[in-house]
Predict the structure.
Amino acid sequence: MPTKKKPQVTPTPERRRELLATAAEVFAAQGYNATTVRRIADEAGMLAGSLYYHFDSKESMVDEILSTFLDELWQGYDEVLAAGLGPRETVEALVTESFREIDRHRPAVAIYQKESQHLATQPRFAYLADSQTRFEKAWLGTLERGVADGVFRDDLDIRLTYRFVRDTVWVAASWYRPGGQHSPEEIARQYLSMVLDGIAPRT
Amino acid sequence: MPTKKKPQVTPTPERRRELLATAAEVFAAQGYNATTVRRIADEAGMLAGSLYYHFDSKESMVDEILSTFLDELWQGYDEVLAAGLGPRETVEALVTESFREIDRHRPAVAIYQKESQHLATQPRFAYLADSQTRFEKAWLGTLERGVADGVFRDDLDIRLTYRFVRDTVWVAASWYRPGGQHSPEEIARQYLSMVLDGIAPRT
Amino acid sequence: MPTKKKPQVTPTPERRRELLATAAEVFAAQGYNATTVRRIADEAGMLAGSLYYHFDSKESMVDEILSTFLDELWQGYDEVLAAGLGPRETVEALVTESFREIDRHRPAVAIYQKESQHLATQPRFAYLADSQTRFEKAWLGTLERGVADGVFRDDLDIRLTYRFVRDTVWVAASWYRPGGQHSPEEIARQYLSMVLDGIAPRT
Amino acid sequence: MPTKKKPQVTPTPERRRELLATAAEVFAAQGYNATTVRRIADEAGMLAGSLYYHFDSKESMVDEILSTFLDELWQGYDEVLAAGLGPRETVEALVTESFREIDRHRPAVAIYQKESQHLATQPRFAYLADSQTRFEKAWLGTLERGVADGVFRDDLDIRLTYRFVRDTVWVAASWYRPGGQHSPEEIARQYLSMVLDGIAPRT
DNA sequence: CATGAATGAGATTTCATTCAT
DNA sequence: TATGAATGAAATCTCATTCAT
């Protein structure tokens, strides 16, 4: 993450997005609390105080990063959930969608992973807990339908399964680098294969 | 995590362990950077300054928490790795051992998850990176052996598999609560079942 | 004090006066230090930076507000003092003149009340202290003449009386609202009646 | 207001009071907004940050200064109002009490004068407006009783009279210096004499 | 004339740490 | 061992001011 030195300035709503992208990158790399606004400003090629022309506070930066990400995530998820797919296809679509989001919002996802528990205690970030709840509902419902339909095993604790699948997917954000050798779809395919069929060979 | 008010003082090495347990709990809940030493002191029923009789610094607290945990972890792992088991049995034993460690050191594991990447940049915490390397070697080796032996699938990217298994196990620390309805062995059993055989029923 | 949104621009000396009036209003309401130039700009329907086309600095705004007010005040006072009236008539004329100034320059008077002591420490605002001195001279002189002539009581500490009359009149700026039910002349009449004859009925 | 250099430290609740006294002095002299916490700390012989061991914020300092003052003020006022005095005696007692408060809490009174309007807009300082209301009720009631009883003139606007008396008394805080040549009781006596009988001699 | 973006100085606040008692 | 009070460094934030467009 070398310091960028681009004195050529881009127009206005663009600039905001650029700055948020920079901030997200640093937050993801160092952790929210360990990141100073000065560091973000350095990275953006301006002085710390100048950031406050664009944002109210450091907090409002994470806020915007996380809520933008969640808005997009739910747009994708809602489409999948509304498509009337079977449980297995729903799981496949959700996982694929998740890896696409990781691909597009990797820093945001990483921040979400590391900081959401901690941030959610503040009223301002209540939407994080809300999202968590919705998430759980969507996944648990799908898994239950799948067990009923016989496309998922019925000998597993369903909440354990939920956590297994959820964590399995999202922690990928901690190591995923966009532009790597695998596309998000390819990673999703392999993950799904492991999650659905296991790493032991089917006889 | 209610505030303890015990003016009766326990002998010194005991006290130290108590304080570290308290600190670990708070670090895990709030994150290392977001935790003030005052908060730890509050929780321990003393004033911030008093902690410095017991510890050199806040850093030395995490240090001791993490290194104690890793020492124990590797004791367990090394035993497994030295036992001359087959790859599948090794995986089973490592996962089971991991859930036992989560059971005994949940806060430490949670801290490790959240902070190790960030802390590892400091020389003092070089052992975190070392451990990471050893860890990777142990798991990758086992998986490769397993593929060679035909007990693990050969159509998967092996690094992806490694990350999948590693993350899958350790993130459990973020939701695991000791004394819950499942013992660590039971959770390990179910996780292994999912990881090895998948969540789709074997025909 | 509603936000004005007039993009139609008035010629330049007019505009200047408008902006000063706006600034004075805000300074009076919030206090000089607590007023940000952004707030003034908001109120004037422009951006903070744009004010600097019209004025050198925030300081120069108060400066102009206060000196304009004091110039007018002394014009009125000097006329009264030069008129060769008796001490009682002088007091009546000065008080009436004062309430007229409050009527026309209420925000300026309020600012003067609240900030002059503090501002007077800066060389730029030396004229505030000068005015204070002239003011004191005029009033004390008039009161002394009145005592000598027997039209004011001689059993009172004359400096106390001075402060009493001075404060009594000027603090009115803190509650006076132009266009209220009493004209400045009517308020002056009642104030004079209280100051000269007291609030207890004359037997 | 010279910098005090007393390294000898006084015990604990005492220290708090000392610091508040120092802060009040500076706030009164410079205005709340124009006062930096560094300035207060300098005056107290410590570093700016050290003040935060004793107080949450600069705001909480004024808060404590003002509320302490108002509590004491109302203790005195309530005693007077409960004493069942006639209207004229009540006025005399209230004015005397007021000058005593000015004597004991001069900086607090000065701060109250200058900043209360501005501070009262914040929820935290709602009690300032409450006090204002109570104050008005007490004075207006007394004045009305007096008019009805014939001990005060009936040809004056009563609200004007109220403001006249109120301001007249409290602005004294801006020039009063404890330990001056007049005791608070003596000042109260002269003020009352002016307010009740006017500055023109009774024939 | 006004905007949008930034600067730079300084203000408040936080917090790990120290130390005399 | 613990307390109470402070230090000192750094972090967040504020704001008057500048300037190219």
In short: Residues 36-38, 48-49, 52, 56-58 of chain A lie near DNA strand F (CB under 10 Å from a C1'). Residues 147 and 154 of chain A are 6 Å apart (CA to CA). Residues 58-82 of chain A form the longest helix (25 residues).
